[in-house]
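Sharing a chain and its predicted structure for anyone who wants a worked example. Both blocks are below, sequence first, tokens second.
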Amino acid sequence: MIRYDLRCANGDEFEAWFGSIADFDQQAEKGQLYCPHCGTTHVEKAPMAPAVVTGRKKDARKERAVAMAMASKVREHIKDNFDYVGDKFADEARKMHSGETEERAIWGEATPAEAEALAEEGIPAAPLPPELAPTPDKKVN
């Protein structure tokens, strides 16, 4: 896993974890990254100092294994305890926010534009990095 310091076009800074350098590049290319503060999809890497680890390969591998085990547990928790709503995520989040439906833990898909609109409307939602997102094997509720 790799951590990047990111900055949006509005100057907000935040960090995000990716499974690999290629994962970041693919998500950026598809416009799937957005600022958790303002919702804009204009996000880029912020300058950061490299973390140089010398003589600690064994420790780094152990830390990666622990991180991947934690990611697996998060993925299973979401799969077992959240309702999968597919591409209706933004609509369901709005209904719960407005009180039209009862609040519950949900997960699904949203386009970058839908995610940005939810943020602008003050509706709490957070993207799941691919390594945390479960495989949707349930029917959409």
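Comments welcome. The longest strand covers residues 2-8.
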